[in-house]
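Working notes for the structural subgroup meeting. M.R. asked for a predicted model of this chain before we commit to crystallization trials. I am recording the input and output together here so anyone reviewing the notebook later can reproduce the run.

Input as submitted:
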Amino acid sequence: MNSDLTAPPLRRRLICMVYEAMLLFGIVFVSDFAFDVITQSKHALVLRHARQFWLFLVIGAYFVFCWTRSGQTLAMQTWRIKVVDLDGGKLPVVKAIVRYCLAWMWFLPAAALVYQLGLKQWKMAAAIALGMLAWALTARLDKYGQFLHDRLAKTRLVHIPSEKELKVQSEA
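Returned structure, recorded in token form:
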């Protein structure tokens, strides 16, 4: 593993995720509209599981395309974060797909618990938030500061230095 590649601070990664969620809203909106046009559905609960599968594929295609092309989504470019494989190279498609599927672990364990316990309203939100917090803390347990899904997928998030940081490093 290339240890020269440092992980971005946890705070920056979490803020990047919030920005990513805002950008995904547009992708989901357009994709959902296309699904409704194609299937002629007039209600969100019609073909609910097919719709969820469609959105899972569309979101996955977005991430896999970005990660394999440049290692960065638009949000990651903004926050100077890049996903690479363990030696710092570009992600192959299979690793990008594995990373995408494993990244759902941010939500799925807590969502399963919510479903099993029949939690509603604020209890549901609290359970999901605690699950996400627990997953975020996995970065504190890794000696390279990586999330568990990155460790399992054999990928890394790395900090891309700004022009100012590069200039300071070259002068030192």
